[in-house]
Design goal:
- The structure is a single chain.
- By secondary structure, this protein is mostly beta strands.
- Strands 2, 6, 7, 9, 10 and 11 form a six-stranded antiparallel sheet that branches.
- Strand 9 and strand 10 form a beta hairpin.
- The protein is elongated, with a radius of gyration of 31 Å.
C-alpha cells in the first residue's frame, strides 16, 4: 500500500484572499517599474530652449575695414553695396541656451586669404565673430572666429548649409531662426558671387 507524501504546512489548497493580495502586489511593482523607466526618458526628451538675440550692428566702408563683434556675440548677417569703396553692414547676435548666455572665447583665431576665390568655414563649435578687408577687390580678407561654450561645454553646430549665390556688389544675407554664421565664399571681383554658410545651434 503506497503512501502519499505531503509537505509540511501545504494543505494543497490556495486561499482566494492570498491570490488577490498577490495580484495587487504584482500590479504595484509593475507600476513602480514603469514610473522609474519613464522619468529618465521624459527628462531626456526635454530639448533645451535656444535663442539667438540680435545684438550689435555697424556699417562701414569695405576698403581697409576692420570689424569685430562685441564680447560674447557672433556674426549672424552681412550686406554689401557697391565696389571696394562701397558700404558693408554687419549684424551680430547673442546666443542663449535655457536663458544662460553662450560664452564666446577670448582666444580668437584668424584666417587670411586673397579676396578673389576666397573660402572660409569655421571648425566645429566655432563661429565667425569678425572680418577685416584690406585694399580693393584683389586685396586680403581676414576672418576672425572663436570657440563657443555653454556652462563650460563646447556648443554643437548642426545642419550647416550654404546659401545660394549673391552678387557681392548688391546683397544682404541673414541667418535663419536658431542659426549663426560659420562660413563665407567669394568668387572673382566685386561683381562676382558671395555665399554664406549658416549652422543651427544645438546642445
Amino acid at each position: 500500500m503506497g503512501h502519499r507524501i505531503r509537505r509540511a504546512g501545504n494543505t494543497g489548497t490556495t486561499d482566494p484572499k492570498d491570490v488577490t493580495l498577490y495580484k495587487k502586489a504584482l500590479a504595484t511593482a509593475a507600476s513602480a517599474v514603469l514610473t522609474l523607466s519613464l522619468i529618465p526618458a521624459a527628462h531626456a526628451a526635454a530639448a533645451p530652449d535656444i535663442q539667438i538675440v540680435p545684438g550689435y550692428s555697424a556699417t562701414m566702408k569695405e576698403k581697409d575695414s576692420k570689424f569685430m563683434c562685441p564680447s560674447h556675440e557672433v556674426l549672424i548677417g552681412r550686406a554689401h553695396d557697391g565696389d571696394e569703396n562701397g558700404w558693408t553692414t554687419y549684424w551680430c547676435g547673442r546666443i542663449y541656451i535655457d536663458n544662460v548666455q553662450v560664452t564666446v572665447s577670448s582666444n580668437r583665431y584668424t584666417q587670411s586669404q586673397a579676396e578673389p576665390w576666397s573660402a572660409f568655414e569655421s571648425p566645429e563649435s566655432n563661429a565667425m565673430i569678425g572680418r577685416d578687408h584690406a585694399g580693393d577687390e584683389n586685396g586680403w580678407t581676414s576672418t576672425h572666429y572663436a570657440l563657443l561654450t555653454w556652462l563650460g561645454t563646447p556648443v554643437t553646430l548642426t545642419t550647416r548649409r550654404w546659401t545660394s549665390r549673391f552678387r557681392e556688389s548688391k546683397h544682404e544675407s541673414k541667418a535663419g531662426t536658431g542659426e549663426i554664421m560659420t562660413g563665407r565664399r567669394h568668387l572673382s571681383d566685386e561683381n562676382g558671387d558671395t555665399m554664406y554658410q549658416y549652422a543651427t545651434v544645438s546642445f
